[in-house]
């Protein structure tokens, strides 16, 4: 949580879920009240990539959301009440799989 990688809004990034139990953390900034639209695609068929949103105090703002099936696209919308710093957590749904193949993550502010 404390070592979250800065994630620019709009442009995609690639990362892996490796080893089993890996959680990726991203720091994102909301310029105002609104919502973050999160898309995770290019997912290895062994993974069901899930995401959730926390505020800067590690309080859950948006609970886990995931794909309809393993290897599927995760699309989530997380409302944010005000401008500020947030953390996006990305993980395998049951923390029971890994992949050397990268997933692609993009976050837009609306």
Description:
The protein is mainly β and 110 residues long. Helix content is 0%, strand content 52%. It contains no helices and nine strands. The strands form two sheets. It has a five-stranded mixed sheet with strand order 1-3-8-5-6, with no helix packed on it. A four-stranded antiparallel sheet has the order 2-9-4-7, with no helix packed on it. It is globular and about 35 Å long. The mean pLDDT is 95.
Secondary-structure blueprint of this entry?
Elements: E1 5-6, E2 13-15, E3 23-30, E4 34-41, E5 49-55, E6 60-65, E7 74-80, E8 84-92, E9 103-109
Parallel strand pairs: 1-3
Antiparallel strand pairs: 2-9, 3-8, 4-7, 4-9, 5-6, 5-8
List keywords for this structure.
mainly beta, 110 residues, 5-stranded mixed β-sheet, 4-stranded antiparallel β-sheet, globular
Give a short overview.
The protein is an all-beta fold and 110 residues long. The chain has strands at residues 5-6, 13-15, 23-30, 34-41, 49-55, 60-65, 74-80, 84-92, 103-109.
Distance between the termini: 24 Å
Question: What is the overall shape?
Answer: globular
Gyration radius, rounded: 13 Å
Q: What order do the SSEs take from the amino end to the carboxyl end, as H and E?
A: EEEEEEEEE
Give the count of helical stretches.
0
The tally of strands reads 9
Mean pLDDT: 95
Give me the side-by-side strand order of the main sheet. Answer: 1-3-8-5-6
**Estimated share of beta-strand residues:** over 45%
The main sheet comes to: 5 strands, mixed
Q: What are the low-pLDDT stretches, counting only 5+ consecutive residues below 50?
A: none
Percent helix range: under 10%
């Amino acid at each position: 949580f404390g070592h979250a990688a800065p994630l620019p809004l709009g442009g995609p990034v690639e990362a892996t879920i490796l080893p089993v139990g890996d959680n990726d953390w991203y720091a994102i900034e909301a310029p105002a009240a609104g919502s973050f639209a999160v898309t995770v695609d290019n997912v290895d068929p062994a993974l069901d990539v899930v995401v959730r949103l926390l505020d800067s105090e590690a309080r859950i703002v948006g609970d886990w959301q995931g794909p309809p099936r393993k290897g599927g696209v995760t699309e989530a919308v997380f409302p944010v009440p005000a401008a500020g710093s947030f953390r996006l957590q990305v993980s395998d749904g049951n923390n029971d799989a890994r992949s050397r193949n990268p997933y692609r993550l993009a976050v837009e502010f609306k």
